[in-house]
Amino acid sequence: MVTAEKKQRKMYRGYVVSDSMEKTVVALFERTYVHPRLKKVLKKVKKYKVHDENNTAKVGDLIEFYQVRPLSKTKYMWLNRVVVAYAEK
Domain total for the chain? Predict the structure, then answer.
């Protein structure tokens, strides 16, 4: 019998912009890409609702999160760790 290996998940990094909900933070994820026709570097910004079980992340923190099965209508990300706390910057 073959043992199943744990799936490697893509990690996202973003800044917490809101922590007013219980066990949920809103993270701002910014990615840059080169436009295929204009050959210009552009930025795309997206906000994700991230599940924070212990309410450890605060506004301004840099966090690392990954995608999981849907937890609610709009929440499908899970907090991995707080990379840099806002007070430490």
Answer: 1
